[in-house]
Amino acid sequence: MPSFELSGRTYETDEDGYLINLSDWNPEVAAYVATQESVNMTENHWEVINFLREYYEEYKIAPMIRILTKAIGKKLGKEKGNTKYLYDLYPGGPAKQACKIAGLPKPTGCV
Amino acid sequence: MADAHEVPEIHDDIETPALQPGSMGHLAPYPAVEKHMVPLNFPAARVPDWEKRGVEKLGEMLKKYRSLQVYMDICVKCGACADKCHYFLGTGDPNNMPVKRAELMRSVYRRYFTPAGRMFPGLVNAKDFDEEMLKQWFTYYHQCSQCRRCSVFCPYGIDTAEITMAAREIMDAIGVGHKYTTEIVAKVHDIGNNLGIPKPALSGTLQFLEDDMLENTGHEIKLPLDQEGAEVLLVAPSADFFSEPHIQSLMGYAKVFHQAGISYTISSYASEAANFGMFIGSYEQKKKISKRIAEQARALKVKRIVVGECGHAWRVAYSFWNTLNGPFDFLDNRYPVPQHICEFTHDLIGRGALTFDKEANDAYVVTMHDSCNVARASRMGPNPGGQFTIPRDLIRATCNHFVDMDEDTIFEKTLCCGGGGGLLTDELMDLRVKGTMPRVTALKKVMAEHKVNFLALICAICKAQFNKMLPMYGIPMDTVGGVHQLVSNAILLGKNKGIV
Question: Is the ipTM, as predicted for this complex, more than 0.90?
Fold first, then answer.
């Protein structure tokens, strides 16, 4: 099974680098995965990650994109509450790349 | 992320590429794992006597499916199919010519099931089902999207998709599965849909969209969940509850129901139209997945079942539901069983129940991408070719500007989006990028000649695939959308509500 080492700990991932054990996640892991993804984490990036994690905690699934954009719009200003802004933050896609950094499982299906 | 895929150059026309033998031989999908194989009643891992078991399974299938036996025997290698596969056109790998892909199975068939192949394998190019052959099968039977374009051109009507499905079924039977598809099927059995959206999340999502539509339209448009006694059970692909542009179509369906005054419900138990049992070629899985829908239709006491914008779901529903889970005689037989959402909306327009402000779509010059499973494996409505004319009628009813792409790339000759048949997975990205090239070529042509800026279609896989692919070819992501997205934009709410 693929894995990576960080601060003396081993983290197991799937073939695409998503954490196997969701409880392994911590901000240091997120920062490391973001570096691997060439995403430079700013405060606004963290807002997305925090929202994804809160939503997942409650619903056991990532939110529909529109729910995410609306939440981000509320937090960061209406002009940022759109899909384009999310793709500016996470060029690999809010569903896949942001979920990976947030330690959520990879969305499956026709996505 | 390593998204630096080599993007083919787009020429004026779709050209037959120079041969590049073995160029895609490295690209196989991730193998399935035990936790996904076991719930599907497949062996957890490759079985010890897999060579023998694989050949036995092929033998069983030849007996069970007369068509497969015919496809093994009848090909005369005329080559009509050779340049018809989008994956061949995009990759130049001869194993992606439909005839060569099928030959991977035919050579094994000859070895074990024909006298000449048993005695003189070298003379008839008969091959053992060995490690190398299994590797080729796993690779190239996962580079076919089961789109059946090649079958349109085959003088014998050989259905290569059926050969691909058979190969995948044989591999599953020996414990060699494909991760993406088996994980998804396992998730449907566990949670009810491909995405794994549990009921509370689905309920919250629908509530969110209702609020959103109220805010944007001023109308209380409902997305009811698990409502017993509704007239219609709406079965949509679960991507409609999650992704852009899919949810735009979901809101379109909701507005149509609202405006027509027809009660409907979504089901949390049968919250998936898609049926990946077809992609893995398993009759049992296909039956088990679609059974959820039949059960819910009975439990919720609906009179009709309407299927959302999902290509292969429509094939399964239209062509197989009755055999798999029929009869559906408990439904109202005055309506088609099942009914496609496009057919449903089309019928309402014909009866004067819906009116549109076409100018709402005036920003768009629209073209239509026919999705393979709708185009070549089903029909729609009472007339032949309805699967082509009905969605186009809806576009014309809701938009002022529509133009078709090159006639060799639409209707039954339509080109696959490059992500169908269970290949919409990231590890096959290189194949997806190359396989979409022929469609993008035809699209770019109408973009240049007619200023087309909207690619309308009725398939969740196509939407997701183009959403990812078009930007790689320099086309904006929001160029792709559903037919009911256009309906949603243009529908007039509130006036003359209900069927007249």
Answer: yes
